[in-house]
């Protein structure tokens, strides 16, 4: 069976800046990968390349057996994506936006509405009927973006900082939801700065720094006995300066 996601020597440059630098890894179907790194490490760019939102400068990517450049439309039909900036149509209401997303994926309106109601109920999202997404809180927008990513039942889901701005109760529901999807064979790729979330959810870890892949594989194989993910992360990317100020 083809891998869910395969990167081969992928590089992405913006002028003289290299955001992703010769990255290669293979994620099997049904896996749950936590992609972690510092701000500007190349995580979001890697996800944009994998979801056909950007074209690599060099290398190749395959998603569910499809070449991301040659078969971009087929890739987009089969994946769900929750980008960090969410990219919502904010002059629509939440239900209108999900109708739009569902129709783009060829779903019937009654199917869209039933799935929307189930997602909104699970995520405790109950916007006023005429409220536009532009007027939603940040956390509400996150919930709409997650709903849109899952609405069509994709085989592979990319989630860029899904827990940012989410309350603790909904965060727990989202964790359970994602673990349940994995048990059903859905492949998940998650980026977050909350290392505790990655450690709790993701059996596979990819650590990226300066655009380079510093570590990839099962967490238990990458870390030393008794070592947490934070310690492993700092070991691979290098510790930062001590958190001190000169005037205190």
Question: What key phrases describe this protein's structure?
Answer:
248 residues, alpha/beta, Rossmann fold, 6-stranded mixed sheet, 4-stranded antiparallel sheet, 9 helices, 10 strands
Description:
With 248 residues, the chain is an alpha/beta fold. It contains 9 helices and 10 strands. The chain has a domain at 5-85 and 154-237: Rossmann fold, CATH 3.40.50. Helix content is 36%, strand content 25%. The strands form 2 sheets. The protein has a 6-stranded mixed beta sheet, sandwiched between helices. The mean pLDDT is 92.
User: Tally of extended strands?
Assistant: 10
Rg result: 19 Å
Q: Largest sheet at a glance? A: 6 strands, mixed
Structural category is alpha/beta
Q: Please list the strands of the largest sheet in the order they lie side by side.
A: 6-7-8-3-9-10
- Distance between the first and last residues' Cα: 59 Å
Poorly predicted sequence stretches spanning 5 or more consecutive residues: none
Binned strand content: 15-25%
Q: Quick one: overall form?
A: globular
Brief summary:
This protein is of the alpha/beta class. It has helices at residues 43-50, 72-78, 94-104, 109-122, 138-150, 168-183, 195-201, 219-222, 229-237, and strands spanning 5-14, 17-27, 32-36, 58-63, 66-67, 79-82, 156-160, 187-191, 204-209, 212-218. The strands form 2 sheets. Strands 6-7-8-3-9-10 form a 6-stranded mixed sheet, sandwiched between helices. A 4-stranded antiparallel sheet has the order 2-1-4-5, covered by helices on one side.
